[in-house]
Structure formats: structure tokens, C-alpha cells
Design brief:
Order of helices and strands: HEEEEEEEEEHHEEEEEHE
Radius of gyration: 24 Å
Largest sheet: 7 strands, antiparallel
Keywords: Signal
Number of domains: 2
Number of helices: 4
Number of strands: 15
Distance between the termini: 42 Å
């Protein structure tokens, strides 16, 4: 009878803890998650979507009135090239596919700023957790520190581009090596700022612009407060975008785990998922 009573109490603890947990979560920090499609451009007849395949290549599809007319592939094995496959019969071409290069359509300069050393490690603080087990509650936490490193800047100047929207998007994304989640927000601002006119999937007004991306990496070290040997490094990035024509000037875009999200439930949930496997738990404080 005593064992039955103890089991009943344990079940009550688990259910009460589950009821008190928030369900808030946010996207994984994995760069360019496989299979997830993002829409980079859409109007009444044209749609451009992008996703990452199992090999890490990024695939951009352009549809016209629901029909696939072109696919651009940003190859991980050849980052400055774009493989194009054509599916429409309305345009006469010498072949059904070709390869173009980023620097054919603009000037690309990169500053891989190896001179910049990481800043001193900064302590964000400690996240305190509580989990429910058969024997009752246990308390534990994560001590979180991070360092910041400027990975350098990349600038791309587009020279009088006229063509399909999918090609312009592939050129910009490939030149700046923007991850999918950042490209979605950045390109929306860029296209609107440039006032691009698209008809039948083709850009009608020549595009000339300079975009610059300064990439910053945050390296987090997560340490279990109850077992110091249990630790892990996870990462986040900031992309600072400038544009001389003010299409998307001075915007910051973020991916993964970044300091600005400290003390948010989503960050606490994702850090916990990186380190622990408890089924019933919650956040009880920050220090």
C-alpha cells in the first residue's frame, strides 16, 4: 500500500509540473535546416522558394503561375558558382542547364578578419531548472558564458543586373553566404527598398546596389552546475547588413543563440534541450 501511495504522489508531481511548464520554443540553431522551405519572394504570379538538401546545397525554385520554371543550386563544393536548371519552354536556350559565377554579375570582396581575436569570455549567468522524477523534484542548472568574434565582412556590388528574380536572389545569398533564416528577412527588405519591378518572373529595371554583411559569431559554453564535466559549446550569429542605397541599411539579423535573448524562456528551453533529457521540468530562476 505504501508503494502504491508513493507511486501516486510521483504521478501527481509529474502532472503538476507538466501543467506549469510553458510550451514556448523557437527554431533550432542549426544553420539552414534540411528540408525547411522559406519563401524569399512572392507576388501575384511569381514565387521564389529556398531550402537546403541533405548534402548542404541550397536549392532555389522559381514558380510562375504555379509552374516550376527554373531551379538554382548553390553548391557547398563550389561556393562561388550557381548551377541553373531550366524547365520552361517559352525561352530558347542552347541547353537545359548551365553554371554562372557570382563575380560575373558583380564585384565580391571579403575580409576574413583573422586579426580580430575573440573578446574576453563574458559570463551571462546561470539558468536554474527543476525536474520531476519518481522520487520527487531535483534542482540543477546551467552556467552560461560566451565569447564574441568578428568573422569579418563581405561586400557585393551588383552591376546592372536584369534577369529572373531567382538569379538575383541566388547571387546575393551566395555572395554574402546568408543562412536561410536571415536571407528571408533581409531579401524582403532589400527587394522592397530597391523598388524592383517583376513581370512574368523577370526583373524589368536594372538592379545596381552594394550590400555588405559583417558576421559576428557567439560561442557559448554551457556547464552543468551539478556536474562540471558535463558541458557543451553551442553557437549563434549576428549579421549586420549595410547598403549604400539604403535598401536594407543598418539592419541586424540573428541566427541561433545570441546574447540579446538572455533571460527569455525560448533560450532557456533550447539550452535545456541541448544538455538534458528530462521529460518534465521547468525554469525556476536566473542568476
Amino acid at each position: 500500500m505504501k508503494k502504491v501511495y508513493q507511486s501516486f504522489i510521483s504521478i501527481l508531481l509529474v502532472f503538476s509540473l507538466l501543467a506549469s511548464m510553458t510550451l514556448t520554443s523557437f527554431a533550432t540553431a542549426k544553420n539552414n535546416k534540411v528540408g525547411d522551405k522559406v519563401t524569399l519572394y512572392e507576388d501575384h504570379e511569381t514565387i521564389v522558394e529556398m531550402y537546403t538538401d541533405l548534402s548542404g546545397n541550397r536549392i532555389l525554385n522559381q514558380y510562375l503561375n504555379g509552374k516550376l520554371i527554373q531551379r538554382d543550386t548553390l553548391l557547398t563544393s563550389s561556393p562561388n558558382s550557381i548551377k541553373r536548371d531550366f524547365f520552361d519552354d517559352s525561352v530558347t536556350r542552347k541547353s537545359s542547364s548551365d553554371v554562372i559565377y557570382i563575380e560575373q554579375y558583380g564585384k565580391l570582396t571579403s575580409d576574413n578578419n583573422e586579426r580580430v581575436q575573440p573578446c574576453a569570455v563574458q559570463t551571462a549567468g546561470t539558468i536554474k531548472y527543476r525536474a520531476a522524477l519518481d522520487t520527487g523534484y531535483i534542482y540543477y542548472g546551467l552556467k552560461c558564458t560566451y565569447d564574441t568574434k568578428n568573422l569579418g565582412s563581405t561586400t557585393y556590388t551588383i552591376n546592372n543586373f536584369v534577369g529572373r528574380m531567382v538569379d538575383l536572389i541566388a547571387l546575393v545569398v551566395g555572395a554574402l553566404t546568408l543562412p536561410n533564416i536571415v536571407a528571408e528577412a533581409f531579401l524582403d527588405a532589400l527587394i522592397k527598398g530597391l523598388g524592383i519591378t517583376v513581370a512574368s518572373g523577370m526583373i524589368k529595371n536594372a538592379v545596381t546596389d552594394t550590400v555588405s554583411c559583417i558576421k559576428t559569431q557567439y560561442t557559448w559554453n554551457l556547464v552543468d552546475t551539478t556536474a562540471a564535466s558535463h558541458q557543451k559549446n553551442v553557437y549563434g550569429y549576428k549579421y549586420y547588413i549595410t547598403d549604400v542605397k539604403s535598401a536594407a541599411k543598418n539592419n541586424n539579423y540573428y541566427e541561433g543563440y545570441v546574447p540579446k535573448d538572455w533571460k527569455t524562456q525560448s533560450l532557456a528551453v533550447n539550452f535545456h534541450n541541448e544538455m538534458f533529457t528530462y521529460n518534465a521540468w521547468n525554469v525556476v530562476g536566473w542568476a
